[in-house]
Design brief:
By secondary structure, this protein is of the alpha+beta class. It has helices at about 5-15, 20-35, 95-105, 155-160, 165-180, 210-215, 270-285, 320-324; strands at about 40-45, 50-55, 105-110, 120-125, 130-135, 140-145, 185-195, 195-200, 225-230, 240-245, 260-265, 265, 290-300, 305, 315.
Length: about 325
Amino acid sequence: MQAIDAATVHRLCAGQVIVDLATSVKELLENSLDAQATHVEVKLKDSGLTSITITDNGHGIDTSSFSTLCRKHWTSKISRFEDLEHVSTFGFRGEALSSLCSVAQVTITTATRDSAPMGTELEYNMSGELTKQTQVARERGTTVRLTQLFAKWPVRHQDLKKNIRREYLRLVSLVEQYAIISDNVRVSLINQTRTGTTTHVRTVVQSDRLTRLLSVIGASLRPHMARIQHESTQDGDVKIDGYISQPIPEAGRSGSDKQYLSVNNRPCDVPHIKRLINETYRAYCPAKYPVFAISITLNAQTIDVNLTPDKRTILIRHEAVVLD
């Protein structure tokens, strides 16, 4: 028996964090939102096969963090395990940028309020070490560009190319979720291909959650959307707020692809909750699935978001109360 070398460990762990096109964008989109950006643009070339570029107008990256930015488990979000009970940011594990360096070529351009209109372009190697630093013009914010995604992972690269349409549709759904929950943020998703440029997601900064939802599902459903509001103090505070389509054929969908659930403003997968919503809806409208965007707010100490690297699977201590 022998210890696995550090480079191999890095690649093994990175492959669990960045598993597909959607998670590569998710990590960067969350970084932009954590940086308090009010405009985030996700731009893909050839659906991500050629490049992925995420640009924001957030607070930028300080020069003191350049060398450690892409090192594994370096983060400004928490300093000890107990901080997880109060974490309010999307990211906190310090794995995203480090893992992206292992699966793609990463270039970061950033400027802070103090350095703008001058910024810095940073290049990192597969290990997350800074290899090149260049002064460039840049307004406040950060741009991360990924190229050659999974190029050094033959099986995943082949699967990405083979199923690029399916992978891109997953990405669209993911960006839609963050666009809907992000108050006072303009989120856009643009795809540039040989046949032209298409904008699949675009929200307006000054808009409420229903307006952002309708920008995703279509304004024609506005008359058929019902508000859901509920508060309970049993076994901990529970607040539910959102919108769901009325249980009539013209308001439902043939599939469950437009269903957006968030807990403490974090998009996540809670199968029991989604199943209950669908079963209740289909009891009144059997041939259709509902469209919904529902936000559940719980005491942060009653949930665990550290179950999986993507943090989409969460554990709710009082799930039965939420279901009731």
